[in-house]
Design brief:
The protein is an alpha/beta fold. It is about 35% helix and about 20% strand. The protein is built from 14 helices and 14 strands. Helix 3 crosses helix 4, helix 6 crosses helix 7 and helix 12 runs parallel beside helix 13. It is elongated and about 70 Å long. The two termini are about 40 Å apart. The structure holds S-adenosyl-L-homocysteine. The site of S-adenosyl-L-homocysteine has 20 residues, from strand 10 and strand 12. The site of S-adenosyl-L-homocysteine (SAH) has 20 residues, from strand 10 and strand 12.
Length: about 375
């Protein structure tokens, strides 16, 4: 199938849901306006002999003034408005439920095709940080993770990543200052849309989120880390490591069978040598699985001399999965061992445990949401 056929097929699926067949039948191929980077818009405008500078005006209407029709873009000519109307749509996406506790809010979001995702807002002293989802479900199959129990249904479009930020900002009437791509899904399994999303939110006359305020978390898809390191952005990279050796990691994370821990470490070293910013290793503390003093020593040896730090995550137990959270004593002993080994380490402040907003638990309890909907 050639590229154009693929695009049309994808859009046909889209329009099937929206029941806009008429536009497709008339041969019009439409895109979400929120999936356009400034360069995409400029190229589009030039193709239609419109002035390039109109692109930044459109971005201003979308992301600063936040209108949601082209009609409202009053400094554009009628013919340009018509051109935009004929080529782009505004996505349909709604927050249908929210749950709040003191420092965290969880949003249940309905997509155009009725699939549900979630985003979680954490209020830090340095600002509002939003954890967003990248896929409906996830195919990585990590043994401890709830998201993986719901197999991947589809990737989110870049517009659907952008809109998670915009919808939450609209709700809280405040700005999101930090984004962590750590919700449902594996971001590097939706790589192209992820990168487009980063370009869009990074654009300085739009949402203007500095790349240092964006963190992408991956379970370790090595070829994508290699692509990622070639990009010009200074986006933070977090690696879900969760084990100090292949034996343990193979049991917890199937991805380790494709890209094992040695290859992963070699790749992270390359990433750092190529100017990558300090890497975070996430390490869930699972009782008697990966939390012994020997495990801590082995971890220290594995990452010694790397520009990194370890974030120890108290495991959020879920009723569907048998793993237990390490006791406070074991977490502290692990932490002290890493400190003694001169490894930078923190213990993650816990957010959202009481509202199932903790990472990996997003959406899995959607049946609990049902009686709210
Ligand atoms: N797929 C990406 C991002 C989503 S998972 C990744 O693997 O990094 C986000 C983080 O939450 C990962 O570190 C994941 O391992 C962790 N996580 C999953 N289930 C969890 C749970 N029950 N308690 C604590 N952390 C969990």
């Amino acid at each position: 199938m050639c590229k154009d056929e693929e695009i049309i097929k994808k859009n046909l699926e889209f329009y099937y849901f929206y029941a806009y067949y008429d536009k497709i039948i008339m041969g019009v191929y439409m895109k979400s306006i929120y999936s356009m980077t400034i360069q995409d818009l400029e190229t589009f405008l030039e193709e239609y002999n419109e002035k390039k500078y109109r692109a930044s005006q459109i971005m201003d209407w979308l992301y600063i003034k936040r209108v949601n029709t082209f009609m409202e873009m009053t400094n554009l000519s009628n013919s340009l408005i018509e051109l935009l109307n004929n080529n782009f749509y505004f996505d349909k996406m709604d927050i249908i439920k929210e749950q709040n506790s003191t420092d965290v809010s969880k949003y249940l979001i309905k997509l155009y095709d009725d699939n549900l995702i979630e985003a979680v807002l954490m209020n830090h002293d340095y600002g509002n940080s939003l954890c967003i989802s990248t896929q409906v479900g996830c195919n990585m199959g990590c043994a401890f993770c709830e998201s993986g129990r719901l197999k991947k249904v589809r990737n989110l479009e870049s517009s659907e990543l952008v809109l998670q930020i915009m919808k939450v900002e609209e709700k809280i009437k405040d700005r999101i200052s930090h984004v962590v791509v750590m919700g449902i899904g594996e971001p590097f399994d939706n790589y192209d849309n992820l990168i487009k999303f980063i370009e869009i939110i990074n654009y300085n006359k739009g949402i203007n989120l500095g790349s240092r305020h964006i963190t992408v978390s991956t379970c370790g898809i090595v070829p994508k880390i290699k692509e990622f390191m070639k990009l010009p952005f200074q986006v933070n990279l977090a690696i879900s490591l969760h084990a100090p050796n292949n034996d343990i990691r193979n049991k917890l994370m199937p991805i380790n069978k494709a890209y094992d821990i040695n290859l992963l470490m070699k790749t992270i070293k390359e990433y750092l040598e190529n100017g990558g910013r300090r890497v975070t290793f996430e390490y869930i503390m699972l009782e008697n699985i990966n939390d012994s003093i020997d495990n801590a020593k082995e971890l220290a040896k594995l990452i010694r001399n790397m520009n990194c730090y370890v974030n120890l995550i108290p495991y959020n137990e879920t009723e569907n999965i048998g793993f237990k959270r390490s006791s406070k004593d074991r977490i502290m002993a692990f932490y002290d061992t890493l400190k003694k080994e001169k490894i930078n380490v923190t213990i993650r402040r816990e957010f959202g445990g009481n509202i199932d907003a903790a990472c990996g638990q997003l959406r899995s309890k959607e049946n609990i949401w049902e009686h709210f909907i």
